[in-house]
Design brief:
alpha/beta, Endonuclease, Chain A, two-stranded parallel sheet, 41% helix
């Protein structure tokens, strides 16, 4: 307001809004600072596990069931799918085959040809009388083409936004569903890191075509995927998907054992972190990680270092220059020195964006899921990890690892210690937002 001029109603309203926005900003910054302080206080809090069982053993499966939830189910058929050229056709063929139900959820459903192909597949099945449920995260899928949503709804697709950001849901704004799930007729399931966007097309042949790993599953474990979908669907709709999708899932002869772990932010430190910790503590010979985002809290860094120090072949494959979130990469760099000094081998992928989330331990334990090795996956988001106990699947994923190592640069400790001061400064700055990464 201009000094000496009588205040108008507009001036009062403007001043009120100005102070209100300033107050809201101050409250938001204060809350963010509190979260950061809480993270720093918890960063070194650790788990204690005496005589940890080896991944792949019955005792390890029992530990995961008791601690992380999800029984070990025998008799499943598991196909490992690598990159969009394998993943998208398999998923679209499965949708086209649906005769009763399609239950689908994803964190990312963006604009482009891929999004249109999936929307049209859902539309075709809905018009054929199939019950089609589609749930997308309200934050991760914010760029989605709203015209596609309208087309799906008009065709009879049950389309739901998950935790759409509102002023009255600020307490949930940072807690997203990062799960990727598709279940067809209750009998065939898919999960992994795939998003519905053109970035996942192709075969990781260029920086525009991301590297990914996904699973196609048949057998009793599909019920666990359906359970994870139901968890989020019921929260938003209040409707429990039942009926024809709850069919008998008989074990498949010669099938493999699968264990699915649901992870939720409502649990505080989530089950994803417990699962990774158990694998780190129990690995005897080998532990290889692929993760899109690597920014672990200090306690996990120390456990990784301890595993390498006791002789485990511990390798971590992370993103190089093509990562879509450089701040996460810088935050992860803060851990490199300690890990390298302990004997951990670190590789940065050079071909394109590495979006896969894969772990292999010893010779018959493998995990493919949605969780990254950062605080967002470990404490803030709903995630899902699918463990497969099978030497054949491990061998296939091992081959993928070796191919990816060939397309990576291994970080050398002495060269790392000589990195520029500017890089160190970026790493230090990233610490201020590490709890949100």
């Amino acid at each position: 307001m201009v000094p000496g001029r009588k205040a108008s109603v507009g001036d009062v309203v403007a001043d009120t809004w100005g102070w209100g926005l300033a107050g809201a900003a101050a409250v938001g910054l204060g809350a963010y600072a509190v979260k950061g302080a809480q993270y720093r206080r918890e960063a070194e809090q650790t788990f204690r596990l005496s005589d940890p069982p080896a991944p792949g053993s019955p005792a390890f499966a029992a530990l995961v069931e008791a601690w992380c939830g999800g029984p070990l189910r025998a008799g499943n058929r598991v196909d490992v799918l690598r990159n969009g050229d394998e993943i998208f056709p398999s998923m679209l063929d499965a949708i086209a085959s649906a005769s009763r139900t399609v239950d689908f959820s994803t964190y990312i459903f963006w604009k482009g040809d891929t999004a249109t192909r999936f929307a049209e597949a859902f539309i075709e099945r809905a018009r054929a009388g199939v019950e089609v449920n589609v749930l997308v995260d309200g934050w991760g899928s914010a760029p989605m083409d709203r015209a596609l949503v309208t087309r799906m709804e008009q065709a009879g697709v049950n389309f739901v936004w998950f935790r759409t950001p509102h002023w009255y849901t600020t307490q949930k704004l940072n807690n997203r569903s990062h799960r990727r799930i598709m279940v067809i007729d209750g009998t065939v399931g898919f999960t992994g890191g795939m998003g519905i966007a053109d970035e996942w097309s192709g075969d990781a042949e260029s920086p525009q075509n991301w590297r990914e790993t996904h699973l196609r599953i048949e057998g009793p474990a599909v019920r666990e995927l359906l359970g994870a979908f139901t968890d989020n669907w019921v929260e938003e709709t209040g409707v429990v998907p039942a009926g024809p999708r709850l069919t008998e899932l008989a074990p498949i002869d010669g099938g493999v054992e699968v264990q699915v772990s649901k992870s939720s932010a409502r649990q505080g430190r989530a089950a994803a972190e417990a699962l990774f910790f158990a694998a780190i503590a129990g690995a005897r010979e080998r532990l290889w990680f692929t993760t899109a985002y690597f920014a672990p809290r200090q306690a996990l860094v120390e456990h990784l270092a301890a595993a390498a120090a006791r002789g485990v072949d511990l390798r971590i494959l992370v993103n190089g220059p093509h990562i879509d979130k450089q701040v996460v990469r810088r935050a992860g760099h803060r851990s490199y020195g300690e890990l390298l000094a302990a004997g951990v081998r670190l590789f940065e992928y050079q071909r394109t964006m590495m979006h896969a989330k894969v772990v292999v331990a010893d010779d018959r334990w493998a995990n493919v899921g949605t969780a990254n090795f950062d605080n967002r996956s470990m404490a803030l988001q709903d995630e899902m990890n699918c463990t497969v106990l099978d030497a054949g699947v491990v061998a296939e994923l091992e081959k993928h690892f070796l191919d990816d190592f060939d397309d990576s640069v291994e970080i050398d400790l002495e060269r790392w210690r000589r990195r520029p001061v500017r890089s160190r400064a970026f790493e230090l700055i990233s610490g201020a937002v590490r709890h949100s990464l």
